[in-house]
Amino acid sequence: MNEKVLARAERVFGAPADRHEKGSAMTLIRQDADATREKSAKLKAMRLAREAEEPDAPAAPTRAAPKKKVKRGRT
């Protein structure tokens, strides 16, 4: 091939290094999923550590619902 044709092909198609490699979208999705998983694991560990430090607070007593009065008719 002559150099004129090669130069034109390089301009049109670009160098192979400039093009995305096959499957790069899946790689990006996998990296995002891995980053999310790592962040979630870190936050869960922090939450569990914080909950372990806090003493268990006694539950506030709740008031019992008032009993309904039963109306009885005359017989």
Concise summary:
The protein has 75 residues and is mainly alpha-helical. 55% of the residues lie in helices and 0% in strands.
Beta fraction of the residues?
under 5%
Question: Helical residue percent?
Answer: 40-55%
Largest beta-sheet characterization: none
Q: Which quaternary structure do these chains form?
A: single chain
Number of helices: 2
Shape: elongated
Count the beta strands. 0
Terminal CA distance: 114 Å
Radius of gyration (Å): 35 Å
Return the average pLDDT rounded to an integer: 82
Helical/strand content category: mainly alpha
H/E element order: HH
Unreliable segments of 5+ consecutive residues: none
What does this structure look like?
With 75 residues, the chain is mostly helical. It has a domain of 50 residues. The protein contains 2 helices and no strands. The chain is elongated. The termini are far apart.
Task: Sum up the structure in keywords.
75 residues; mainly alpha; 2 helices
Helix and strand topology:
Layout: H1 3-13, H2 24-53
